[in-house]
Each structure stands twice: as structure tokens, then as C-alpha cells.
Fold these 2 entries.
Entry 1:
Amino acid sequence: MSIRPIDAMAIPLKSAHFLIFLLLVSNIFTPIISLGSTIDQEREEFYEELLLRPLPDRKVLAHFHFQSTAPSSNSNGRHHHLFPKAISQLVQKFQIKEMELSFTQGRWNYELWGGFDPISSSNAKPPGVELWAVFDVPQDQVDATWKNLTHTLSGLFCASINFLESSTMYSAPQWSFRPATGNIRYGMLPREAVCTENLTPWLKLLPCRDKDGLSALMDRPSIYKSFYHSQRLHLTSNKSGPEGMNPGIILEQTLTVVLQPNSQRTSVTYSGEKNVQPSWSLSSIFGRKVSGRCVLAKSSNVYLQLERGLVAELKKNKNNGVGNIASEGFWSGTGFELSVRPDKVFEEENSSHRRGSSVLFEFSIDKYSDSQPFDLGLKWKFPVTWSSEPAPLHASRFLMGSGNERGAIAILLKSADLNDASLGTCSSSNGYKFRVDVFQVVPWYVKVYYHTLQLFVNGQPKAVGDVIETIHVSPSKDKISPGVMEMVLQFPCDVKSAALTLEFDKGFLHIDEYPPDANQGFDIPSAAISFPNFYTSLLFPGNCSVDKSPMLSKFQEKNPVLSYTEVLLVPLTTPDFSMPYNVITITCTVFALYFGSLLNVLRRRVDEEERLLKSKAGKTTPLSGLLSKLSAKLRGRPQETPQSPSNSSSLISSKLLLKVFLVAVLAVAWQYYFG
Amino acid sequence: MQTREESKHQRKIKRGGFWRWVIASVFFRLILIYFPHNLFLSFRPEVSTPVTSLRRLAEGYWLKQASMSPYAGSMYHGSPLLPSVLGSLTVKRIEGHPDHVFCSLLFVIADIVSNRRYSNQLAIGITYILASGDFAALVYFWNPFTIVACVGLSTSPMENLFIILTIYGACTRVVPLAALGWAMASHLSLYPAILIIPVILLLGYGLDAPPRKLFLQKGFYKIGDNSSSNIHCEQEKMINQSKPRIIFSWRPVMLFFFWTTLWSLYLLVLCGMSVKQYSSLWEMFQRTYGFILIVEDMSPDIAVLWYFFAEVFDFFRNFFLIVFHMNILFMILPLAIRPSHWPCFFAFVYIAISSMLKSYPSVGDSALYLGLLVLFLDELADMQFSFFIFCGYVGVSLLSPVMHNLWIWRGTGNANFYFATAIAYACLQIILVVESVSAMLNHDRKLRKLSVANLLDGKS
């Protein structure tokens, strides 16, 4: 961590400041000024976008996307206008190449809400906190940097991300999670409760906070009563931009919410049908309206996406056979009615998917203001049912076995009906196989036996070597590191279902290691399953406005389909928390019993004792001698015996004193040298 | 002449009976092995400990096959040689049918070999009744603990085999064998390393007291000439005189040390070769001996240490670790001084103590010392509480699985119930050790008295 000396760049800095100030002023007052591209690259920019999408199960997906970019820090030093300073300092201090932090509550329903589109594979996150970061530091400093980063983030976002500091909580995936990166660290906190205290610092990073623009829609109660919400922060920094990307930092903040609109009854009620799509509007799902754009944003758009399945269904219902869906008349077509006229309509360039192509309506909210707020409403004219496009294989994970001693983890991959859509890439004729990457992290107290890995394809057990192409395992070390498993599976194209089981033993922890609610069980973080043969991309026709929108250009990127499995809850046996003292004392008593009685047996010399008794018996009988001793003791008078007891007792006491002294000296020495 | 033939015949009959029993027990084992999943014995905490579990060995073997150190992760804690020897036997076939059977067969063979050694000890004359060695062997062979440890797929039969080989080698004065047994046993489980002292005593003094009694009598005849009435005085004199006559022969001991260094070096070289690719010898010691000494794994077993270290405050942990391990070592000196003329008994006591206080004990360890106990059947005939101890063993071995089931599987019991059975088991073992030591000392005293009385009678 070295702070860059700023004196060297003080003079260019001033001029740059002035320029940027000018640009900003001009941007605020004349938003439609087009600037030269050279200056354009030097500017800090901010975009805000919102994507709305009706989901098949009468819910609505709202996906906020905010992007801030800052040019490389050389141009303007440590000062920023739009870009959050905290983030740029973070990037500088920890040399972050790429980082993603997500807070999620609820689980993305891959079956109903889709698993094949960009949102589900890059914004559907496992419950709790997920953090991964790629650092640009030497290998030996990566762990230390990661630890510092977790503490910083935990302060920034009011979350217990600092628990990821412990080496039992993070791992270093080699290739399955993010390909071709060496300095990556990955950690998950499945039980982190996500709440508004995490959202507020996240909103603070936006230039308009939640006061203006699209972020003003984020009404806390409506967001936190949603079925799923995931707030995500993605950071990319390019120092010199060797790969042709713009140098600088790109901060991408997304909030994905799945909401249930209040069932606003349409004029015609379909009482019999349960699957009637509710009509909704922004004000009905968020309780607020957009009262204009954030003035600092370069562009501020709202999109409404209709999925491929929905579009195909609407086309069928329309049965007029109008070819061009993206034509102007479609938005007020037969299926539904929009309350606001869209500015633009895009239709996806359909390449491989025969199901149809999704349609995107763009609404620019530049023209709306307090007096005329933007409130997009969607009214269904008749019931429509469709289904979202699922991932190539639906991945689920569950536990097998009972009891608290051992169990097994099973990952089940079930084929969705891939009859038409995606099997184009996988044709068995040319020997091409279906590749699945599995990345799984298990905490150390779940002691996985990797040699028990079993694979079942279409219900038949298969040899591990037939299916697994590559496997990388770093087994867990007790209290040191979690177990990481990365696998590349190759299935034949006609795979219907595949299962993979791993046996494990449940560990036993020290009582201090149990959380306060120990009987609730422990979470195994989600496994990430990706399908590198399948790419999520929504390709829209080459259009300058599409290129300009960061969200849409993100959608156009070719990313492999990724889905997360469920978090598993493993109940572990608990010891008795209430009585450690009893255990300690009883065990020590047993040891003392062993030591004392064995030593006593070994020490005793029965022969000599007998002899002693007999020699005494020559004078007095042992019983009478004992009695006389006792009576003498009782009377408090010294017994009249030849050998004086005082002598021996003094001897004993001096010996005892010596012993005590020795022990004390030992203790002092110990304390001095080791204490 | 006739009587000798008769006795020979009788012995033959006896031996025949012995072999019949041995074969019967081998069949019994084979039958048990062919039960599905080995009756789940290999999962029992009483049978397989983190050090001896064959499942963990299989994991280590798998890791080794995947070109990783078998000690990667904290699964495997055994010797690096075992995966090379046993590993291939643990690989599962694709049908899900384990090849553990071969492994079990190997353990059965180990048992048989140990059995032979047991019965051979009799030939050396440690016991007075000829059948005692056979009897000990049969008790070892038919001991439910041994059977369970053999069928339950743990490596403890191997450890037991090497311990028995050590004692056998020392008894028969086959020094290389004793050295091999000792080196292997302490390599496998560390605790048998203490047996070096009884082995040295055995090699130095030879077996048991018969020579000493001869000395005693000789000495007495010498003293007997000047007639004195005080028996005790005479006795003392005799003992004093007889003591220096017991010659400690240094040659076998030196040989033993030589062979021990040889075997240990050989083992170290083998281990070094097998771990060279992935890790170092230092890691091996950390993962085997270190794991035993620092009680890392706190999964429940039949000892008391797991629960103690699960509950004790962390800052006391090191202190108690030192105390508990010192407890084993503390008794060496008193035991070496007192029944020094019974090195075999010393070995037995030490095996019992270490199986009671070791970090991860299993019933296999108990089986070993219970088998050895029978060797001293005659000396320990008037042991106190023997019935109580027997009942205790039966009761604990029935109750402990029940409590384990209640706690782990049903979730209705509490950890304390299971721990209570562990405490009871520890107490039983303590009583057994203490009582056997005291019975041995009493027996010794009686022998001495009797011999003196006999001599006096003979003289008068």
C-alpha cells in the first residue's frame, strides 16, 4: 500500500480539473451536447437504467443498473466528481483488478424465472454475501490484501464481511469459477442477513443517492418484502488498458428485485383463471413514481423486456401474422397495453433460438419532471401463460442420509426440455459433448471423502473417469482451510439427468466455535454450476443507442450460463454447552484416580509393613497400640513412645517445604521464560 | 515313558482342539465380512479412529493417485506406507462393490499371525501351564473386540500384530524381529515406542523369574548354614544377595539398538521415498505424530479426551495436553523399578495404560491387552474385582453404542450420556490395571514367601 505522490502531477491536474468542471457544467445545462471522443474518454460518467420484465408466475422483475466510470487515476489524481471516492481508494489501495460483492436475500427460482438470460446468470446470486476479487499483487501478498479488503468492505457496507477474513471462509478457485485468473479469492457468507443498512451505503455510492432519478424508486418496504432481491457491486479496473478497454475504473451497481405486484384487477376479471397476469404500474409495485432523471446521469432509461416465450405466445394469440413485432403498433397491440408510449422498440437478433426473440421497449425519462412523473403501467388484455427459458440443465443440490455422524451431498442435474432451443450447439453426431463445470466449496467441518465420488448418468452408475474430464480438489484442513472441488464434466448430448454424490463425515467442533444458535445447523455455501458451451447474450441490431447503454452492452456480452445451487443446511451434533466445568473436573478426577491408585499400589511394600507391624506387636498388640495412639491424640497429650513423632513431623514438614519451594521456583521460572 | 507318551498324546489332542477353534473363528470372521457393508462396523467410532480408519486411508490413497500428498487436507493421519500397501485394495469398483473384502482378509491374516505368536509365547515358558499360551491366543482370537476390529476395517490389527511381534521377538530373543516390530509399531501409532523399556529389560534380564528363584535358593543354602531364627532377616539378606547376581546382558540390548536404528532408518528411507514427490518427512511427522499428540480431532470415541478438549477453555488446552501425555510417561519409572523382573507384565501394563490414555483409542487396543492379560492368568488368579470388571466391560460395550445412537442418530440423548459411558470405561480400565499390578505384586510376594518357607521346611 503505497500512496502515490501527487506533487508530480499537480500541474496537469489543475488544468484537467478546470476542463472537467467545464464539461460538467456544460453537461448539466445542455444535456444533448455531443463532445469529441477524445475528451469523452477522460470524463467520469454515470448511467442509470431500469429493466422491467414480467415473469411467468405473475411477478415482475425489476433490474436497476447504475454504472459509474472513472478514467485512470493519472489524469485527475485522487479527486473525483461523480465517481465515489471510497471505491477509487479501495481500488488503488488493494490493487483490485476485478471485484464483485453481492448481498442477496431469497433464492432465484431458476425454473420459473429463467436460467438462460444474462440477468439470471450474472445477477442471480446465492443467498447471503458473495465476494470475489482478483488482485494485481504478487502471489504471496494476495491473502493479506484479501484480509484487508474484507475489513474495508465490511466497514463500507455495514455487513459482517470481515468474517471472510478467516482462512476457513475463503478459497482460491483455480479455473472453474472465473477462467484464466491466478490471484482470485472467493468467499461466501450464506447466512448473512441483508437489510436496509446494507442498501443505504450502497446507494451512497450513487451520485444522486436515492433522492433523484431512477434510484428514487427504491422504496425500502417494497424492496424488502420482495421475493428475491440482490444488490450487487461489480468493479473493474484497468490500469493501462492493454486489452483495448478504456483505462480506468468501471463501477457497476445493480439491484435485482422480484416483486409481486398488488393484484390490480383489470376491468374484465377472469375469476376462473389463477394464472391471470396482474396488471401493474411502477407506482403500484414500488409505491413511487419517477419524477425525472438524475441530472448527473449521462443517460437515464427505463426498459421493458418481453421474454422470448412471451413474445412467441403473443404472436400466436395475435394470429394476424404480422411479421414485424417491433413495429410501432405492437406496443398497443392485442395482448397488452402500455400506459406510456415507448421511445424505441428493439427486437432481438435471433440467431440460435428458435423460440422467438425477445422485445425491448425503451423509455427515455429525460422529458419527465415533478409535475409530470413517469409511471409506466402494463395492462394485460387477456390471460397469457408462457414459460421462461431454463438453463440447459437444472441444477439442484441436496443432502442424503440421516443422523449427525455422516451424510452425503448430491448434486442433481436435470435436463430441461432442450428439444428445440439450445441443443444446436450440442450435436452428438460429431462426437461433441456437453460440458458442465462444477465449483463447490465446503467448510472444513464437513469432511468430504473425495474418493467416494459417484456419478450417475441417466440413472446408471458411470465410472468417474468416463465423465470427469478434469478434477481439481484441494481437501479441507481442519480449522485452516475449506475444501474446494472444481470439476469439468463431459456428458453425452442426450443426457436426461446426471447425479453426483459425495460422502462426508460431520465434524465436531470446540464449544467456542459453535454459533449462538448451534442447533440451527451450519450452511454449506452454494455450488456454482456453469455451462461453458452455452452463452447468454441478447443481441440487438447494431444500433448506436444500444451501444451506448451499458446495461444492454452488458447483455450482449458472451458469458457462459451460470447457475447457483441451493444452500445446504447441515445440522451438526452439539456437545453440552452448559457444563464444561463438570467435564473438566470429572475427567481430571478420573486421571487423578488412575495416577494416585497406581502409584499407591506400586509404592506400598506389604512385606515391610507386615514386618513393622509384627515388630511392634512384640511390644504391644497392634490394636491396643492403635487405640492408645488414638486416645492420646484425643486427649491432646503426646504419646509416650520411644520415637518422638515431633521429630518425624518436622522432617516431613521440612521436606514438604522443600517441595513447595521447588515447585514455586519451577513455576516462577516457567512464568519468566514462557509466560 | 508311558506317561510321557500320554502327555504328548494329550497335548496333541489339545493342539487339535486349538486349531479347530482357530479355524472356526476364521470362518466366523469370513462370514461376518460377507455381510453387506460389513454391518456398518467400519463407521463405528469404537472401531475406527481418525488414525486407524480405513476410509481415511482410502481417501489418502485417492489423493495420492490424484498426485497430491496423502496428507493434503486433514483426512489421513497414518503411515505413508500404508496407502501403497493397502491402498489398491480399497478402491471401489464401478458396481459399487467394495474391494474391502481383500483388506479384511489381510486383517484376518494379521490376526492369525498374531494368534500364532501368542501361542508361541507359551513355548518359551513364560507360563507354567502349557495351555496358557494357547488359551491366550484363543481368547485374543475369539474376543469380540478383536473380531469387531478385524471385521470393522481399521488398521489396528496391523498395529497389534507388530506389537505382538515385538514382545515375541524379545521373549524369544530374536533381536531383529523385536527391533522390526518395535520400529513398525511405533511408526504406525507412536505409543508402542514406550515398549522399548520392557523390551530392553526382556532382552537384558531374560524372561521372568525362574533363574532368579534358582539364585534365591542357592543363596539360601549358603546362608542356611548359619542357622538363624529370624526368617525376615534371612529373607532380606537373600534378596539383597540375589540382586547383584541377576546379570544384565548388554549384548542383545546393544544388538537390539543396532537393529532398531537399522530398521528405523530403513523405514524412514521408505517413507521419505513415498512422500518425496508431494511433501517432506517433516510434514509426515506433523500429520501423524503431531495429530496424535495435539488432539485435533474431537469426534467422539471411547476415550475421554475428545469431550474434554471440546469443552476445555482454549488457553488451558496446552497445559492439559502436557499433563495427559505426561501421565503416560510418569509411570515408566515406578513400573520399571517395581515389577522389573516381569518385563512381559510391564509391557502388558504399558499397553493397557497407553490404550486407556491414548488420544484416539479403539476396541482393537483393548483387545490386545485383554489377550495379553490371559497370559498372566496364573499369576492374576486372585485378582480382586475380576467379576466386577468383566461385568463392567460387558455393560459398557453394550451401553456405549446405545448412548451413541441416542445422541448422534436419534438426537434424543445428550453428549453427557455418551461421555458417561466413556468415563465408566476409563474407570474400568484403571481398576483393571491397578488391580492387576497389585495382584502381581502380591503374587510375587507370596512366591517369595513360599519359597522361603519351603526351604525352611526342607531344612528343618
Entry 2:
Amino acid sequence: MSGRGKLIAVIGDEDTCTGFLLGGVGELNKNRKPNLLVVEKETSIAEIEETFKSFLARSDIGIILINQFIAEMIRHAIDAHMESIPAVLEIPSKEHPYDASKDSILRRAKGMFSAEDFR
Amino acid sequence: MRVDQQLRLDEQLLLFMDQLEALEEKRHKLNSLIEEGWFSIAKARYSMGNKQVSSLQYASEMEPLVYIETSMLEDGTAEFKCERKENKTEELKSNTIEDIGAKETGLRRRINTIQKGVKEEDQETDPQGKTKAESGESTPEHRDPLKWFGILVPQNLKQAQSAFKEVITLSAEIASLQSAIIAIRKEMQGQMKEKQQKTEKTQPEMENE
């Protein structure tokens, strides 16, 4: 199974979104919904979660980039996502540097080792 | 069989560790590139003005210039590859430049040799030439998000753009690595459970002896 021409979605603060748009990931036209969400102080958690779930439901998105501090707000939704595509990548923000211990993927990988495994 | 299984587990564990190390390295690089991008955007904002580099400048219509090619492997791992549309825009630019050049030399020759009647004709073809050039050029210019911020943008904004382009390519590699790590983890968990079940079966046999 393969897919060509999938998009990169971004859920981040203004500078993160500006940067990725400069990189050329943005899609916005009258017919389709945008593939990014600029999160500001006024943005509600419900809106972030709804946007995240809508990105997951779309078949044309390959990777979702999300600032880690925003991912913390909707951690339950991110942990519930088990499929390989779209991939969810947590990225740092200006005020919140990347913390590997909070990353969903690394927590899942870390959780495999327990004392019983080494008997 | 058991020794083979253990050897295989050991190999998988080593591969898992290698992949984790590679992931950490790429993450580190991604984080520093993103920070570089933010600094460049901040410097550009300082020179251009606060409101000149913000979400107010986003175009009302955007077309993506980078796509992700996804493929699923047999072991359940997903691979992500980054594809850019830059080559096509460069080809368009070179075609339009050639066309303009040819038309201009043709026009120049005609104007040099003649009179008003023909000059009028040249003027008619001229705007047509220009409109064709504009429509040819406008697609690559329209596509470059750098143009949303003005015609002459500071070098810092271009540096930010190149930093984020690299970040996008790295993101695809990290996504592939993450998928591989999760797949290996699942396989190892399955094999460890099998191993545990076997040791539990053999333990009562040993006790009976």
C-alpha cells in the first residue's frame, strides 16, 4: 500500500506556522480545508483537539507536526492514535524546548523494558 | 530453537538501540535547525517591522510545494519521503526567460529597421509578449511563500526559509525512524512473551524431575 502526494499538517504557534509555510507546506483554497492551525492564547483545547482529529481523518495528510506544549494539552488524543499514517511528530516551541520524556512515541518505546524481561 | 530465538532477540535489541541513537541524533539536528529558523524570523521581523512578518501576511490561497510520499513495508513499518516541486518551477522560469529573450530580439530588430505603422504592430505584440511572460512568471513567483512578505525581503527571511526546508526533509526521516522503532518494539514484545511462556512451561517440567 503506498500513497503519493500527501501533505504535511502543522498545529503550532505563529512563528512555527510561518516557518513551515515559508518551507512550502501550506495548502489553502476555497474548496478544501487548510492543513494548518495557528494556535494562539485564545485558542481553546476543544478546537485544537477537533482540528487534530480532523487531520487524522483526512487521507491526504502524511505527517502532522505539532508543538510539544500543544501536544501536552491533547495528550490523550495523541496517545490514542496507533496508526502509522499519518505520523505525529512533536516539535519544540520557542518557550518550551523539546522534552524526550514527554514524547508519546518515545514513551511507548521506553515502556517495553521492565524488570521481568531481564530474567 | 530457543538459542536461535535468543540470538534473534539480541539482534533486534541491538537494531532497536541503533535506531534510537539515530533518532536522537536527528532530533537534535531538527531542534537546532528549528531554533535557527526562529532566530532568522525574529531578525527579519526586527528589520521589517512587527506586523510585516506575521500571520497577517499569509496568502488567501496557497499551493503546497512539498509533498510526502508514503509506503507501507511488509513488517508494518511506514516510510516517508519528501518531494519538492522546485524543479518544475525552475523549468518554467527557464522556458519563460528563453521566450522573452527571443521575442525581445525579434522586436528589437523590427523596431530598429522601421516606421510608425510597424512600430504600432510591435506595441501590440509587446503587451501580448509581456502578458505571456507575466502569466509564465507569475506561477513560480505566486508559489514562493517568500513573496507574501514583500518583493525585497531581508536575507534573514531567506535563511529562515532554507532552515525550515531542511527541517521538513528531516521530519520525513524522523517519521520513518519512529515508525520503524514502534514496529521493532511490537515484535520484540511478542517474542519476549513467547520466551516467557516457554520458560514457564519448562519450569514445572524441571520441578517434576
